[in-house]
Write the structure tokens for this entry.
Amino acid sequence: VAKWIRFEKVTFNADWAASKTFEYFRDHEKHHGIPDEKMKEIHEAARKVTGWVEPQSESES
Amino acid sequence: MALSICGSSVANTGEIQCDKSRGVLKKLFIFNGSIPSASYADEATLFAKLVENSKLSKTETNKIFVINEAQDIVDASEANTEGTLGLGFKAVLREGKPSYTIKIFAGGDLLKRLRTFNNQTVRFFEWDANSTLWGTKSGTNFVGYQGKFFFVGNKLATGQNVEEGVVTITLSILSTSEYFDNPYWAGLSAYNIEDVKPLIDVPLAYVSNVTNVHQISMKVAGSNLITDFNIYDEFGTPIAAMDADFSAFSGAGDPTTSLAITSITANATLETLAVTYDSTAYTAATGNIKLVPPTPAELDAADVTGVELIAVTYPKP
């Protein structure tokens, strides 16, 4: 089941947001007019609720 | 001792106390599906099933369509056909089929929707003033009686009678075997029949877009020339919160390629849903976009009651 995060009147697809970098997520959703610091919190929350694990880079694996 | 084979063809004539018979009609439910025995194991289970089925999409087989409460009923059954013999014997040769003329209150828009049932063979349940539900059985399934409905109304009122907003239903019953010989009932006086709800279609529609951010309206298609009824004020915010129950697809014809929705918000300026699609997938998408909304049951669980959102398919702008 997809997870979603609600901020004020906007509901974000947490699964999708967690899979993107913060910068990509912020730019993709900039039309909502939400300040960057709030967008950062939303992105972090999305990664938390979805249990996102950063993929290991090739040099680390 | 008389010689008789009646025992193999007739029933005993004793009567149990408080035997049921049909009371005054209150509501009709068009129901072309079936309720399995497990779902009428007790009154509470049956009533829960009725409520559940009323909140199904109209595309579902077990959907219950609720007709407004009856305000007037006339028995318009065909008379029995009788025959006589020359020396005075008279007998019923053929039983007339039951039929009723029923009046309900309904506006012009609802009448248009009701008339989509005209002369179609459907099945229906009766709900009477004793809070008793009447139907029949097919095998072990509880089903409605077969019948044909015909709805008329929305004529100019004459000022002589209560006519404005009155819709007349002619209900013609197809099977006396079902209706008189095999009726089954359930006493549901402990429950509120108004919990079995009619729904209204609310088609989604594409309004505009800025690249991958699309504005989608939610309006009841009606007869108002100037504007359709927008449910945004009532339900825009709670519907926008139901992103998890929306899905989107892209492709030719009836799209099937998943198109991720990244966010939804209620747009107070346009009174629409602002749906943002994943920009990479959106750029790659061709043909049509299909936006599938939550089901009526999902909407009802989120307190968006009495509506069925209808999916929209539109060419990618």
About this structure: Chain B touches chain A at residues 210, 213, 237, 240-244, 260-266, 274, 276, 278-279 (CB under 8 Å). The longest helix of chain B spans residues 43-54. Residues 23 and 128 of chain B are 5 Å apart (CA to CA).
